[in-house]
Amino acid sequence: MIETMLDVRRAVSEGFNRLHKILLRVVQHDAVCRRFMTVPGVGPVAALSFKVGVDDPLRFARSRTVGAHFGLTPRRHQSGTSVDFDGHITKQGDGAVREALCEAAASLLLRVKRYSALRAWGLRVAKRTSMLCAIVAVARKLSGILHRMWIDGTEFQIGFGAKVVEKLRLTPA
Q1: How many domains does the chain have?
Q2: How far is CA 6 from the centre of its chain?
C-alpha cells in the first residue's frame, strides 16, 4: 500500500513539474508578464493570474477600482442612524487572483529584503494594525500598480511611492 501511495505522489509531482515548465514558458514569451515580474514579490504565477483575471485593462476607468474588482476592499456596514464601520474584505471576484496577489504581497513584506516604497508603506501599516491587514492592503495597492504598469507600459520603479505626509496636530489657541 505504501508503494502505491509513493507512486501516486511521484506521478503528481511529475505532473506539477510539467505544468510549471509550461507556465514558465508562457510567461517567458509574454512581455506584459515579464514587466509585472519586475515588481518585488510578483512571480510567474501572480503575473499570469493577474493578467488573465483582468483580461482587458481598459475596462477599468481607474486603477484604484481593480482591487475592489477582486474583493480586496473592506466591507462597509452602514445605517442611517448608527455609526458606520468597516468589516472584513468583500471577497468578491476571482478568488485565485486575490490569492495570488496576497501571496505576492506576503512575499514582498516577509521575504524581500530590498528596500521599496511599497514595502515600507506595508510595514508601516503592519505596525499600526496587523500583518494580515497589511498583506491585504499591499495586495490591493499592488493590483492598482500592476494595472497602471499595464496601461502605461512603464517599468516598476523601486524607490518611488506615495508622498509621506505628516499629520498636523492642532493646538488650541
Answers
A1: 1
A2: 35
Domain residues for the domain of 63 are 35-76+85-163
pLDDT digits (tens, 9 = 90+) for 32-57: 999 999 999 999 999 999 999 999 99
The residue among 159, 156, 152, 172 whose CA lies nearest residue 57 is: 152
- In angstroms, the CA 69 to CA 62 distance is 11
- CA angle centred on 120, ends 48 and 46, rounded to 5°: 10
What is the grid cell recorded at 82? 448608527
Answer yes or no: is 103 within a domain: yes
What is the three-class DSSP state of 77? strand
pLDDT band at 28 (very low <50, low <70, confident <90, very high): very high
Q: Position 86: which residue type?
A: D
